[in-house]
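Form P-L/3: holo structure prediction, ligand iron/sulfur cluster.
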Amino acid sequence: MTNVQPVNAPYVPPGTGWPDDPAVAGTPVAHGPAEVRSLAAEAPSLGELTARQSVCRACPRLVEWREKVAVERRRAFAGETYWGRPIAGWGDEDPRILIVGLAPAAHGGNRTGRIFTGDRSGDWLFASLYRVGLAASPTSTHAGDDQRLIGTRMLAAVRCAPPDNKPTPAERNTCLPWLAREIVETADSVRVIVVLGGFAWQAIWPALKEAGFDLPRPRPMFGHGAEVELTSPKGGTLLLGSYHPSQQNTFTGRVTEAMLDAVFTRARDRSLSN
Ligand code: SF4
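OUTPUT (holo model):
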């Protein structure tokens, strides 16, 4: 990984050589909810959308937190440069499967610059994706490693690491246009959306509505293996729930390797069937 800044800087300046940095110095920056909405709506391509996501500063509490963490760092990573910016969507540009989590981890994505990368949840997730043929490698350690998703793209409903892993409802709403536009941009190819955890399950419904999906009423309950058939102007999409591979869930056995593999096998097979 390229060290592109002094180790006490609060974030990596865009376009300075960090691997896979989607932004450049002139990428427009959103400073509030209205600018998120307009910059997401007007992004001319998926690449520009992710660039704009990656420099967003619309949520003051989250910007302060992600940059504070990037300066203070955890002892185990004290010698590393932290990304300290929002985590953009990552993976295949014409995916058949979207994987949606809630938010990046303070010392995972906020450090490595890539979603679910460099933390225990990501270790479980990528290992499972590799076993079922949706990732090129069983591990994901940092941006610029040899990891690659196969027919799959990962997104977070909230793109910045929140204190205590808990974004506020207002922060979730502010970030929603980034998610909705990314769903629209990938809708031609996506056949399955896997949602990790109950919080992401709650967060995705307004984004699906904004993206033009017809939504069932009442809202279906979240559960591991829960399935909902959705229709949009682009066709049918299966929404698939999965328990989050958080440390708490994996330590307690609430989520096992077999359970994760079953969900992603189902997603893979369904995405290839139509
Ligand atoms: S959470 Fe989303 S809207 Fe808020 S600052 Fe981060 S990227 Fe921007």
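COMMENT: Residues 1-7 have pLDDT under 50 and may be disordered.
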